[in-house]
Amino acid sequence: MTDTARKIINDQQEWIRKEYFATKADGDILPYMALKDIEEVTRSPGAHRREHEIVLKELPGGSGLETARIAMCETLGYSVMWARYKSRSDRTYAEDFAAFIKYKYGHPTGKFQGFHADHVFSLARAEVSKEKWTVVCLCPASVNTSHGAKTEKSILAGLTGSKEQRLLDTIGLLKCYGIRIFKGDGDTYQVDEEALELAARQLSLSGIDLSEDIDFLKKVTDFRPCET
Question: Which of 43, 73, 78, 105 has its CA 20 to 30 A from that of 22?
Answer without folding.
Answer: 105
